[in-house]
Amino acid sequence: MSSTIVSLTDIHKHFGSNHVLDGLNFAVESGECVGLLGHNGAGKSTLMNILAGTLPIDSGEMRIGDRKVAAHSVNDAHLSGIRCVFQELSLCPNLTVAENVRVLHHGLSGWGWRKRAARLITEKLDEIFPDHGIRSDAVTSDLTLTQLQMVEIARAFTEVDVPVKLVLLDEPTSSLDSTTADQLLNYVQTATARQQAVILISHMLGEIVRAADRSVVMRDGRVVATFNRGATKNELVAAMGNVATETHGSAPARTSNTGELRVDLAVKGERVTARKGEIIGLAGLAGHGQTEVLLEVFEQARRGSSIANGTAAFVAGDRVRDGVFPSWSIGANLSISATPRLSRAGFISLESEAALGQAWRERVRIKTMDMNQPILSLSGGNQQKVLFARALAADADIVLMDDPLRGVDIGTKLEVYRLIQSEAEQGRTFLWYSTELDELVYCDRVYVFRSGQVTGCFSADEFSEDKVIKASFEEVAL
């Protein structure tokens, strides 16, 4: 018999005048995977924070099992067996992997707790992500973003004194390649078979269709549709209210470009090239040298090297660590790249800064009425729009994108795709690393990386998912 782990009735949550949750009703049963969908700003992450105990509700009723909860806290969530993996990872960078497990489990105490913590996380990593290659004594600041995501996921499923009943996964595959994402989805089935429950938030509709026993669609802070297993991607997109259909795989044809050479970089004997107006994709399993290429191009452009002919702007994939200035306003985060042309006699013109922010707010549709609000008041997708606007406002010749659309909903993605294509037609060059193969169809040419070398290069008419996957696992495919 299934039992209700948590239920929410008529939940309301405000942030100032912004009504984020508006009469939300939601429940999770043991042994089920619930897919949670909705565009950025629909209220999904706020719901996650309420369940995790990091945000209080303004009104409504919350029950955990048969118990009515008056004041839900992080400690109450933990003692109730509720774990959360947020989209913005929360590991302590100065601690080892094993020590981060101790942060979650206070029951790991006394003589030999480090060995017990190391064994606990290693066994869970082995179970979820075979061949992960992560040492329990590694300092987390030395790990890649993919490894950090794997550790955080594995830690959420570990048990010490309290059994795990519900795990909330907010965009858990956003930093994983296709292989590790597949391993995680397989483990979700294992977890639900053990009568644990999982809430899966993912912008990858194929993951929801595959893993979810029930799919819940949110819009404007409410549940607007619920589907049992078997719902199609088109049904889910329609329920989200997206005006555009899912167009992955059907990008407009692009003519070959013979403009000025912008990038000419040697990579293990092969050359990665990009001409004026081209969109160049970098593919392959995560952590195989793609980010290093982007950073090298950025550095060479800064030095004025012939390897990168022109100025460059960088759009980070890890917006928390490498992107936003969290204590700054939306407008200040956007305009910092344009500081030189906004300055007069060493002083920034506030009127020019405000006009720049307003122009880009309208152009990329940043969901705010006040650019002076803190950047963290925006949803993750809208924060990412700010980073794109910052790069484009810099008037750079080359825009370097380090998997920047991870965790972003399909509606926002389509807006960004159109913006990239429009800017490329005006002569800007894009180097775009993506872990999502669907995004690479927008590129003129795709380079596949493995172990720091290029193992495949495919033009737009040659590109296919099978070819990229094959090149990702072979030594040389050229």
Automatic annotation (TrEMBL):
<keyword id="KW-0472">Membrane</keyword>
<feature type="domain" description="ABC transporter">
    <location>
        <begin position="6"/>
        <end position="476"/>
    </location>
</feature>
<dbReference type="InterPro" id="IPR027417">
    <property type="entry name" value="P-loop_NTPase"/>
</dbReference>
<dbReference type="InterPro" id="IPR003593">
    <property type="entry name" value="AAA+_ATPase"/>
</dbReference>
<dbReference type="InterPro" id="IPR003439">
    <property type="entry name" value="ABC_transporter-like_ATP-bd"/>
</dbReference>
<dbReference type="GO" id="GO:0005524">
    <property type="term" value="F:ATP binding"/>
</dbReference>
<dbReference type="InterPro" id="IPR050107">
    <property type="entry name" value="ABC_carbohydrate_import_ATPase"/>
</dbReference>
<dbReference type="GO" id="GO:0016887">
    <property type="term" value="F:ATP hydrolysis activity"/>
</dbReference>
<keyword id="KW-1003">Cell membrane</keyword>
<keyword id="KW-0762">Sugar transport</keyword>
<keyword id="KW-0997">Cell inner membrane</keyword>
<dbReference type="Pfam" id="PF00005">
    <property type="entry name" value="ABC_tran"/>
</dbReference>
<keyword id="KW-0813">Transport</keyword>
<protein>
    <submittedName>
        <fullName>ABC transporter ATP-binding protein</fullName>
    </submittedName>
</protein>
<dbReference type="InterPro" id="IPR017871">
    <property type="entry name" value="ABC_transporter-like_CS"/>
</dbReference>
<keyword id="KW-0067">ATP-binding</keyword>
<keyword id="KW-0677">Repeat</keyword>
<keyword id="KW-0547">Nucleotide-binding</keyword>
